[in-house]
Amino acid sequence: MLHNKKILLGITGGIAAYKCGHLVRLLIKKGAEVKVVMTPSATKFVTPETLSVLSKNQVVSEFFDTNLNWNNHVHLAEWADLILIAPATANTLAKFTTGVCDNIVTACYLSARSKVFIAPAMDLDMYQHPTTKANLKTLETNGNIIIPAESGELASGLIGEGRMAEPENIVAFIEKHVSANLPLAGKKVLVNAGPTYEAIDPVRFIGNRSSGKTGVLLADEFCNQGAEVTLVLGPSVHKPKNPSVKVIHVETADEMFNACVDAFKQSDIAVLSAAVADYKPKEQSIEKIKKSETELNLELTKTKDILAELGKLKSKQLLVGFALETTNAIEYGKEKIKKKNLDLIVVNTTSETNPAFGSDFNTVSIIDKHNNLVNFEFKSKAEIAKDIVEAIKTFSKKQNG
Ligand code: CTP
Questions:
Q1: What's the pTM value of the predicted model, to 2 decimals?
Q2: Among 9, 203, 244, 326, which residue's CB has the most CB atoms within a 10 Å radius?
Q3: Which of 322, 325, 347, 349 to mutate to test the pocket of ligand 1 (most atoms within 8 A of CB)?
Q4: Percent of the chain clearing pLDDT 70 (strictly above)
């Protein structure tokens, strides 16, 4: 959810500031870009150097830096997709409420164009004080989002409410809020991608030329739009950019079958883009096969068709298959919709001019179960992933009236 988000973290002078190094790391792990601004008193609790190393960005704590260059708070606030103030002391809450603008954090707050999340932190009685409560209410009324303080032991030794929410909880809170506003919030999506490898012996296998690129891009696109995504991925060099995609690595068609059947039960949408091996060696030699004979005959047996099996298990799920053909693509695609009980199928062809496998570009058509057909132009696989997700959203809207 926070992948590619630009987050401006404003740190004010409370003891919880020491947790901000960890907070920055968690945000970055989620794929966010983080810039830090601090009040002068915050620098007594955690050094700008630490935060600069962790955020990989310059940290600003004064209006002017040591070379007397002006740090432009307006540009910093404009840059941000969201602003997080953590910890926010009682003093800072009061300044935010009244518009006092005497340090870089309060200046950024007043210049904010994006959502501001505020994680208060102070001692028990300060948190309970009617003035603090009134300030928090005003800030909320003004459109800010308050991340409630937690209970526990406070710096004073008192026990009660007032601790800054733990960094993990702050990140989860923001993620939940951000994803709730995305188009696929609350949807669970299963994607499979890549080839499968079927072992002949410990060193050799039967595989295919699929790179898994389109499926990985699809998983990213679903996730960027707020879905909870499980990607069952065969051997592939590609991996999703969005760290929120849950990846299950598999190698064989059997492993992919089990992982997909398992994830399908909880899914709302399933898109099966993997190039699953249709056959596997009947016997798998435990030892490496020596080249003693002039000919080697391998006996193959059919693998289970994952998509067809999900078509049988389907209840409320929207099921999307892929078809890679060399001839009669649309006809074969239509047949596969019926045969495998699909809602949609993405058809592509492989030829010398459109190799599909391994390339960054492709030409696809999407057919739905009512035989509606949309042909897309030759374009990048990243754009194709977007087109497929949009087609699924449109189909789903039509189905639900
Ligand atoms: N598929 C699957 N399990 C298999 C084989 C295919 O889930 N063992 C899925 C693919 O992921 C794809 C769809 O079935 O979504 C169509 O795959 P494709 O290879 O085009 O067709 P097949 O059904 O295998 O039939 P054929 O190879 O004869 O065209």
A1: 0.84
A2: 9
A3: 322
A4: 99
